[in-house]
Recover the amino acids of this structure.
């Protein structure tokens, strides 16, 4: 069964705060003659966010599929959660995926299941957790994203933004250490997109989930990078502008022609004089 | 080139760059033939890989029992109406047609023998197979194809579930075991349909019809009628799953996959029927 493996104390220490949780080392991938990624290297630090930008077809979503093991690279090494996944067999990948959550571009909710069954899917199907405990966890997670009253609806009865948020709830229900977001706000209106951004920030700052966000929505990318979730003394949570040190914890990667053309934090990205970046940001 | 995974959306079929001087029609035809052969071989390879993964999924854990039960209900009970109607009218029309022919030889009382032998050995399995290909094969390809194009298959894998175990194994098991049951049902109502025509249209005595039905059957015939549907059920469902998992290109692709599944599984029913019949004649008779 694909439930998260308990880490050894040594691995737990090695993957603690400030240590790398996802590592790409000179990863290359091509489909026939078309090069998608060429010698791509980057590191995601535990509890931080990596935002991957790039034009359509630049290979952004491919990076997420490589992390999940849905694709295998032609060359290079990929480490996820202390496991080398680029050569790992599909059966073993199930263990690694148990500690990963993925939010797909259009949500990819199972349309024949209710919201509750979608959110609790991993716990119902792939764990030994008792059904009433799964239900409690589903209610908790839906409450966290503010959709508790939609628990028994079908996905077809939800709006685009609600579907995206249910997808986030599904990804986080099994408490993964890493969350991957594939264009989480594409096609949403600015207000709904902000709600989704807030969920990403809350998960990162309150649940200590490491995240990789693939997007070409610059407004959302900068919002996630420059805001933080703080719990007030009265127990309520609010999203506020992050201080400069906190903002530097979110790193941007710009993909261009299969490689990384920029890597740095929000302020560095804004200050860049690279003509391609300037065009992209304008 | 990355390693493909069973149940994963495959990469586009390899397309060669034009050869130097390929302006000549001959070269282009050769390239087309080569691409076609490669594509066909790739389909066969992927089909075989899927079947190996399915067999492995049948004998190792995890096993999604709930889904298996659901598929037995959907494929078995869900196909009952169409199989009942097909079987009944086939038996009835067979009695009508053969009644005329048998009259020419004064052999009308033997109509039961002809109907039972035809239904049990050939028409029951093949017509049930064709009905299943139309109803079940297309449904499976459309359902799985929709899941592929909306990323639900990738979502399953991302959630730690093997799509072959979750989607393919329950359907293949249900198809494999329910096709013989449905065939027996079709045979039974077919013989009843023949009886109604024989008694009320052809004026054959009821007792004569039933004794003729029994006399016309041998144990080998029963075996043939029972073994064939297992093979046909497996072929129909496995083709539906394979075509569904290989769906590309949005809703248009789902439509194409559905059509392909019906065509491929219908042809497979006829072809598998021929080869299994040939084999069983050698082994049983």
């Amino acid at each position: 069964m694909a439930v998260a493996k308990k880490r050894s104390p040594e691995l737990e220490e090695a993957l603690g705060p400030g240590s790398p949780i996802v590592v790409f080392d000179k990863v290359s991938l091509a489909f026939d003659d078309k090069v998608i990624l060429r010698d791509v290297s980057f590191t995601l630090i535990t509890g931080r966010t990596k935002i991957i930008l790039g034009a359509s077809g630049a290979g952004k979503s491919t990076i997420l599929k490589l992390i999940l093991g849905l694709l295998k690279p032609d060359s290079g090494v990929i480490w996820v959660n202390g496991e080398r996944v680029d050569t790992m067999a599909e059966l073993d990948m199930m263990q690694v995926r148990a500690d990963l959550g993925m939010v797909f571009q259009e949500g990819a909710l199972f349309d024949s299941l209710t919201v509750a069954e979608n959110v609790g899917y991993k716990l119902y199907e792939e764990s030994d957790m008792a059904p009433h405990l799964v239900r409690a966890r589903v209610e908790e997670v839906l409450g966290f994203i503010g959709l508790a009253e939609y628990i028994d609806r079908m996905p077809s009865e939800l709006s685009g933004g609600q579907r995206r948020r249910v997808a986030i709830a599904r990804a986080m229900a099994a408490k993964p250490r890493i969350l991957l977001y594939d264009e989480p706000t594409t096609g949403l209106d600015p207000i709904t997109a902000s709600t989704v951004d807030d969920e990403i920030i809350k998960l990162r700052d309150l649940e200590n989930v490491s995240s990789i966000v693939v997007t070409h929505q610059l407004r959302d990318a900068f919002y996630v990078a420059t805001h933080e979730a703080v719990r007030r003394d009265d127990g309520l949570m609010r999203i506020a502008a992050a201080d400069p040190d906190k903002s530097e914890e979110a790193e941007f990667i710009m993909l261009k022609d299969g490689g990384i053309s920029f890597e740095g934090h929000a302020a560095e990205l804004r200050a860049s004089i690279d003509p391609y970046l300037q065009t992209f940001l304008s | 080139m990355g390693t493909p995974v069973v149940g994963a959306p495959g990469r586009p079929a390899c397309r060669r760059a034009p050869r130097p001087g390929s302006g000549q029609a001959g070269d282009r035809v050769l390239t087309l033939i080569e691409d076609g052969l490669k594509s066909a071989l790739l389909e066969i390879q992927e089909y075989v890989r899927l079947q190996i993964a399915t067999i492995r999924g049948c004998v190792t854990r995890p096993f999604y029992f709930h889904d298996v039960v659901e598929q037995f209900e959907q494929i078995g009970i869900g196909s009952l109406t169409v199989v009942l109607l097909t079987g009944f009218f086939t038996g009835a029309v067979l009695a009508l047609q053969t009644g005329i022919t048998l009259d020419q030889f004064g052999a009308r009382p033997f109509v039961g023998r002809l109907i039972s032998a035809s239904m049990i050995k050939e028409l029951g399995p093949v017509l049930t197979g064709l009905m299943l290909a139309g109803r079940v094969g297309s449904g499976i390809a459309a359902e799985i194809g929709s899941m592929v194009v909306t990323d639900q298959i990738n979502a399953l894998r991302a959630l730690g579930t093997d799509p072959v175990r979750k989607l393919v194994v329950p359907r293949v098991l249900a198809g494999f075991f329910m096709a013989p049951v449905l065939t027996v049902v079709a045979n039974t109502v077919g013989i009843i349909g023949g009886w109604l025509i024989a008694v009320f249209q052809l004026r054959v005595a009821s007792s004569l019809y039933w004794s003729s039905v029994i006399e016309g059957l041998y144990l080998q015939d029963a075996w043939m009628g029972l073994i064939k549907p297992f093979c046909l059920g497996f072929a129909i469902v496995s083709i539906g799953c394979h075509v569904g998992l290989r769906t590309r290109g949005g809703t248009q692709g789902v439509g194409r996959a559905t059509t392909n599944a019906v065509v491929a599984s219908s042809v497979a029913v006829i072809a598998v029927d021929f080869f299994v019949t040939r084999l069983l004649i050698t082994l049983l008779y």
